[in-house]
Structures are given as structure tokens and as C-alpha cells.
Design goal:
Elements (H helix, E strand, L loop, with lengths): L12 E2 L3 E3 L2 E7 L6 E2 L1 H4 L1 E5 L5 E4 L6 E4 L3 E3 L7 E2 L4 E3 L4 E4 L3 E2 L15 E3 L2 H9 L10 H10 L9 H4 L3 H4 L1 H5 L8 E6 L2 E7 L3 H15 L1 H7 L15 H26 L5 E8 L2 E7 L3 E8 L2 E9 L4
Parallel strand pairs: 4-7
Antiparallel strand pairs: 1-3, 2-3, 3-14, 5-6, 6-11, 7-10, 8-9, 8-13, 9-12, 14-15, 15-19, 16-17, 17-18, 18-19
Pfam family, one: ARPP-1
Organism: Virgisporangium aurantiacum
Protein name: ARG and Rhodanese-Phosphatase-superfamily-associated domain-containing protein
């Protein structure tokens, strides 16, 4: 994993690549980090206090929560917001995010699916959102959303639900086509041969919570837009016995894994700028800003506890 040289990944390993059209996901396995609550347990939306201010709370009696980077919340009967940054939430703490961004330019067209408890900003918006952290202007992401919608041949409004809701039946297919593996606590995402995302969680439970939002809404839209009109029909295996089929399949998996290792080495995600943003006990929240990659990481004694890194430009 030399492409991620800005953080120490000793002890982490990669699983077998999975492919769904142009989107490839490589599972990441490694040691879990104790004491960090999963988002479903430790990160609750308390309320949206006017435009641009989101208040989250950790309802637990012990354990710290890490707010997933670029998480967005769906509200019934109110405009929806997303965060530009990650944060720590101590047990019982309530935290105001006054630099949140509204993702609906005007009233109406709400993200109405009640079961969608949170989403992650699409890949194409993440570098812009991260750069706007700290800026208290709830309309700040609308220009980028308008541009993104036009690229999907949708009305050029600052309504993110034009993609996330209207295309949801297509986006949720990525969750079934790419399988969450037992013990998985991270993933590398590729569009074609290009590394576009690296996600690491403190535990498999944490990653399982953010998995649908990442695969369907962060990386799914960019993959959906690049899907071929019709996937080629695979040729049947020319084998006569089960042993021959197993051997052929194993060779195919080895070839794909070697191909992906080449993609990782070619990514060269060097990050010259790493800025500390916050601390909780011995953990540090840092922002990564390189020529090709941006995002945020949580480090404990230089070990990555949480990481959400993404390509700054998508071809």
C-alpha cells in the first residue's frame, strides 16, 4: 500500500478485489482500535438549528465517537445538510457544526426516503466541501452541486437529491454488487484503474455502519456516470471438471490482484501538507492536502484509527 505513504499502514492487509462495472473495491483488514463507538451508537443528529448549523450528540456513557467525514443527514420536512469535516464526540457531548452546508437550494424536493438515515457527499463534491470547512455560509456548496447536476444532464440547481434520490434505485445496486466481507474495516475504491478513495475505520462495526453511504452515495454516483451502456457478456469457462473451474477462477483472481497492485503503486498519493485540527486524549484529527489526494485522518501514536481520503480530481 505504498500509495498511502503519508500514513503508517503496518499491520493492515488487502483482500481480494471485487469489481462492479468501472468500480473496483479492495477490502482492507487490520487490527481494530478499542473505545471508538460506531456511528449508529455514538453519532446522533440532535437538530438542525437554522440554515448551516447542525448539532450532533454522542448519547453514550463512555467511549468517544468519530464523526464520519462529509456525512449528510436526511430530515423529514426540513432541508437537508452535510458536514464539511470530521470531529470527535466525547461521551454525552453535544457539538455544534456552524460550518455545515445546505444541500437543497430551495424548499421542496426533500430526500424523502425515511430509511436513508445518512449519506456521504459524492466523490465529485468532497474536495470542495473539505476546502470550505470553517466557512459559515450555508449556500457555499450550491455552485458545485449545480455543476455536478448538469454533468448528469439534470436541472442545474443546488439540489443534491436530484442525484441521490432520483438515481437511488441505480446507486443502491452497488451495495449488492460489491460485498462487505466479514472482518473488513476499510476499502480502497478505484474508477477504472485509478485510485479514487481510501477508507479505514476503527473497527468492522464502524465500517459496516458507513459502508452503504460510502459505496452507494460517495463512490456510486461517479461510477454510475461512467458505466458502459451495456456490460459485455462474459464468455463461459472452457472447462470440463469442477477442479479445472476452481483452478481457472483462482488464476483469474491472482491476475486481478496483481493488476490492482499496479494501480496502487501508480497512484503515488504523496501528501506534503498534513494539518492537525483537533485532539482527544492521545488521538489527533488531521487534514491531508496533497497534489492528488485530500481528506482527514485520525491518528493515535501515528497509527491510523480512521481515514477518509479521496482523489482531488476525477478524470
Amino acid at each position: 500500500m505504498t500509495a498511502l505513504a503519508m500514513i503508517d499502514l503496518a499491520g493492515f492487509r488487502l483482500g481480494a478485489p471485487q469489481r462492479a462495472g468501472v468500480l473496483t473495491m479492495v477490502p482492507v483488514f487490520g487490527p481494530a482500535y478499542p473505545g471508538v463507538l460506531s456511528p449508529r451508537d455514538g453519532v446522533k443528529l440532535a437538530r438542525v438549528d437554522g440554515y448551516g448549523t447542525v448539532i450532533l450528540r454522542n448519547p453514550g456513557n463512555d467511549g468517544v465517537a468519530i464523526v464520519p467525514l462529509h456525512v449528510g443527514y436526511v430530515q423529514d420536512g426540513a432541508q437537508n445538510h452535510a458536514l464539511c469535516r470530521s470531529a470527535f464526540l466525547a461521551a454525552g457531548q453535544e457539538l455544534r457544526f456552524e460550518d455545515a452546508c445546505c444541500v437543497q437550494e430551495s424548499v421542496g424536493g426533500y430526500l424523502g426516503e425515511r430509511d436513508q438515515w445518512f449519506f456521504t457527499l459524492p466523490l465529485e463534491l468532497r474536495a470542495t466541501a473539505l476546502a470550505l470547512r470553517g466557512e459559515t455560509n450555508y449556500t457555499k456548496l450550491w455552485p458545485a452541486i449545480r455543476t455536478l447536476n448538469r454533468s448528469y444532464r439534470l436541472p442545474g440547481r443546488g439540489h443534491l437529491e436530484s442525484i441521490l434520490a432520483r438515481k437511488r434505485h441505480m446507486l443502491t445496486q452497488f451495495r449488492s454488487r460489491l460485498e462487505l466481507v466479514a472482518g473488513q474495516l476499510g476499502a480502497l475504491f478505484f474508477l477504472g484503474s485509478r485510485l479514487v478513495g481510501a477508507e479505514i475505520a476503527p473497527s468492522p462495526a464502524f465500517f459496516a455502519d458507513v459502508w452503504p453511504a460510502l459505496v452507494c452515495f460517495a463512490y456510486g454516483p461517479a461510477a454510475m456516470r461512467r458505466e458502459p451502456a451495456a456490460e459485455e457478456t462474459a464468455e463461459p469457462y472452457a472447462v470440463t471438471t469442477l477442479d479445472e473451474l476452481v483452478a481457472l477462477r483462482e488464476a483469474e483472481l491472482r491476475e486481478r490482484a496483481g493488476e490492482v497492485r499496479g494501480w496502487i503503486d501508480a497512484a503515488n498519493w504523496a501528501a506534503p501538507a498534513v494539518t492537525e485540527e483537533d485532539r482527544y486524549l492521545h488521538m489527533r484529527l488531521c487534514t491531508v492536502d496533497g497534489e492528488r489526494v485530500a481528506g482527514q485522518v485520525v491518528l493515535a501514536d501515528e497509527r491510523p484509527v480512521y481515514a477518509s481520503l479521496f482523489a482531488k480530481e476525477i478524470v
